Amino acid sequence: MAARTYGMARRAWAVHVHDFHSSARHDTNTTARSPHGPYNLFVSARRAGTKHGTARTKSNSSYTLSSVTCFLSPPLQFPRSIMSSDSSSIVRLNIGGKKFCTTIDTLTHREPDSMLAAMFSGRHTVCRDPDTGYIFVDRDGTHFRHILNWLRDGIVPTLMESDYAELMREAEYFQLLGLIEGLNAPLSKRREEDEPNCELTRRDIIKCIQSERVKFRGVNLSGLDLSKLDLSYVDFSHACLKGVFFSRANLQCAKFKGVDGEGSIFHNATLRECEFTGANLRGALLAGANLQSANLQDACLIDCSFCGADLRSAHLQTADLTNANLEGANLEGANLKGAKLVNANLKGANLQRAYLRHVNLRETDLEGAKLDGANLLGAIR
């Protein structure tokens, strides 16, 4: 029955995304379950002209579906045939008024840690637009075809420089780390050629780090590609690091005190014991970064992404984490005294033994967060 009900729900399934960062809802009237990627699709069906009814699938049933509500939950075991058909399910998207058609497999396979993959993996609630049958995402759809082509083929498009920058913004929003890395190469090359304000090139940096005690204090390095370099112990204090690409770099014990690193990219970088006191990292991408024992006191971390980051024993006193995404982050033993967590997403985060005294958590999403042993004395919840 579950399989037949799932097929009925899947034909009706074209959903509207309210908010990627919104918390998942639960409906006690669910009547059918079926797998959706690594998660399950729950279906709540209503009989026409009645209150919540039960979805029935027999051919002689007089029931009609007046509405189908779809949402997601942790996985159950279902036949392999259902799983295989799910990945090829057609999805209709309305991106800022531009319409696209693709499959779940395309959206989830190449970039499994992206926002798009999460939207269809069960980690977030999605709802159908009953009038159009499209998922609506409130973003500019001008370059979304390039995103779909990247997800299909893994090829970075050839664009005008202004278009590269616009596509980069969309890639950062959807957290498409592979596309971000691919776009950064042409962007960095053009910045080095065209921006006289950038005082050094990647080649200059590589030459410098071969010596000991390297310092780039106050230097403008905006837009450089410094990915995968060993920059441990380097002093970047008060430097301009806007849009710098530090992906997978080794920055252990590096100093970023007072830097302007707005929009910089640190995904999967090693940042253990780094100093970021007073740094401006607004909108920076730190997903998957290792920030164990890092000092981020008084840092501006508004709109930052720390998804899956390791922040064990990190110092976040009085840091501004407004709208930050810390879903699945490990904050065990972290000190968040006086931190601003307005609209912060801490779903599934590990906050065991974290210091949260007198922190305002009223507008913080803590669904599924581990708070065992956390100091919550005086915390506002």
From TrEMBL:
User: Which InterPro entries does the UniProt record give?
Assistant: 5peptide_repeat (IPR001646), BTB/POZ_dom (IPR000210), Pentapeptide-BTB/POZ_domain (IPR051082), SKP1/BTB/POZ_sf (IPR011333), T1-type_BTB (IPR003131)
Residue ranges annotated for the BTB domain, each copy included: 89-191
Pathways involved: Protein modification; protein ubiquitination
Pfam families xrefs: BTB_2, Pentapeptide, Pentapeptide_4
What Gene3D superfamilies does the database record attribute to this sequence?
A: E3 ubiquitin-protein ligase SopA, Potassium Channel Kv1.1, Chain A
SMART domains on file: BTB (SM00225)
GO biological process: any one? protein homooligomerization
Q: Where are the transmembrane segments?
A: none
The record's SUPFAM superfamilies line, in alphabetical order, gives:
Pentapeptide repeat-like, POZ domain
Protein name per the record: BTB domain-containing protein
Query: Whose protein is this, by species?
Result: Saponaria officinalis (Common soapwort)
